[in-house]
Amino acid sequence: MTKYQEIYKKMLSDNKELFDDFKIIHDAYNLDSSLQDEYNQKGKPVIEIIREYEDRLCGRSEGSGYAAYSGNLAEKFWGEIRKDFPMIDRVGVVIRKAAPDPDFSVPKIEVFEINRIKLV
């Protein structure tokens, strides 16, 4: 098992209750995006913990001049998270409904029929 996979497993086991609760809302949100507010509320502490473990994983390599390696390692770590939580990137999304603009209109497009001629 690679280092980022070990850190991921450790993060889940150290915060089992939090991630179990988040998994429930995550799966529900995957089916019904109207749960965005609750998803954001439950997801905020989860994201904070993920960032903390990401810092633990990548912190040592950044200080020693391996910035590119650290970025790749972080991507692999997030990829591992996305396997179990594919909607994790949607935490924090704010959905606003804009009022319709009364001056906006879509011009009508006229459709013309084209006669096709067969050449014999």
Residues in β-strands, percent: under 5%
The coarse silhouette is elongated
Which percent bin holds the helix content?
A: 55-70%
Tell me the span between the first and last alpha carbons. Answer: 71 Å
> Topology as H/E string?
HHHH
Biggest β-sheet strands, sense, barrel: none
Mean pLDDT: 86
Number of strands: 0
Query: Which secondary-structure class do the elements indicate?
Result: mainly alpha
Count of DSSP H/I helices: 4
pLDDT under 50 segments (min length 5)? Answer: none
**Any idea what the radius of gyration is?**
24 Å
Q: Would you spell out the secondary-structure blueprint of this structure?
A:
Elements: H1 3-14, H2 16-31, H3 36-63, H4 67-84
Plain-language structure description:
There is one protein chain. The N and C termini lie far apart (about 70 Å). The protein has helices at about 5-15, 15-30, 35-65, 65-85. The longest helix has 28 residues, at about 35-65. The model has no long low-confidence stretch (mean pLDDT about 85). Helix 2 (about 15-30) packs across helix 3. The chain has 4 helices and no strands.
